[in-house]
Recover the amino acids of this structure.
């Protein structure tokens, strides 16, 4: 890691002082036999920040997200979500998280209406709150036109929006989104990106994407993982002040044309 990257990581962590830390990973490792999917990863994300998680395919992004949400147990290290240890207090931690996995599973025999009502009941939302939250996510995720259509008949873009609605339904403090704009058309992209920006004004958002333009539009901070290691942690301005984001991405991941 170059001295510039070390300085960027130090400065990014210093910006946490005085802010409420919502996601904290300490010496996070996940091994499969002798293969390190992620190794010795450390970062903190405060409230009111939209943070991009970048890296080439196989770098460890999805593994990191699954560790943060409790879907995978780390080999070593610790994770804190809103002050709750994910390993020892997973239920309380999960109450604070809205998670949209890439190609997340949906109950295809249900409609968006029945699916969201079911998930709201599982989350323990009372009828009044559930009704209010459903009204919110239907508008924000633009689901009115397919509200009573079977999910199995929906396009990939609409399925993605149903998944986003499920992640937002219980009004979580933290959103962990894996490729949230996958399958959306250009008009839908604009709406979802604006929604993410709006949510970042009050929530912590960790966003994994392959679309570098999306990072520049919605994110203020970048975490970049390569071969399981965190190789950059800094502001969007630091990421791009000496080079384009695309060129920086290539440089930090060791790519040469």
């Amino acid at each position: 890691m170059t001295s510039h990257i070390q300085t960027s990581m130090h400065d990014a962590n210093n910006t946490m002082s005085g802010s409420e830390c919502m996601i904290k990973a300490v010496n996070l490792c996940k091994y499969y036999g002798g293969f390190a999917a992620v190794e010795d990863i450390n970062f903190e994300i405060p409230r009111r920040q939209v943070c991009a998680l970048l890296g080439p395919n196989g770098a460890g992004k999805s593994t990191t997200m699954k560790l943060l949400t409790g879907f995978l147990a780390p080999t070593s290290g610790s994770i804190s979500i809103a002050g709750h240890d994910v390993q020892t207090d997973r239920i309380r931690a999960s109450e604070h998280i809205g998670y949209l996995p890439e190609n997340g599973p949906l109950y295809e025999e249900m409609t968006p209406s029945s699916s969201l009502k079911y998930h709201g009941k599982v989350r323990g939302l009372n009828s009044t709150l559930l009704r209010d939250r459903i009204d919110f996510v239907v508008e924000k995720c633009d689901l009115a036109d397919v509200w009573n259509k079977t999910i199995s008949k929906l396009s990939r873009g609409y399925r993605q929006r149903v998944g986003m609605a499920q992640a937002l339904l219980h009004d979580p403090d933290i959103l962990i989104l894996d490729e949230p704009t996958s399958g959306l058309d250009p008009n839908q992209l604009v709406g979802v990106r604006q929604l993410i920006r709006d949510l970042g004004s009050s929530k912590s958002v960790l966003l994994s994407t392959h679309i570098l333009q999306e990072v520049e539009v919605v994110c203020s901070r970048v975490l970049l993982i390569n071969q399981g290691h965190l190789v950059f942690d800094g502001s969007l301005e630091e990421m791009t002040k000496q080079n384009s984001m695309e060129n920086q991405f290539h440089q930090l991941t060791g790519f040469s044309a």
Observations:
- DSSP finds ten helices and ten strands in the chain.
- The chain has a mean pLDDT of 89.
- Residues 190 and 209 are 15 Å apart (CA to CA).
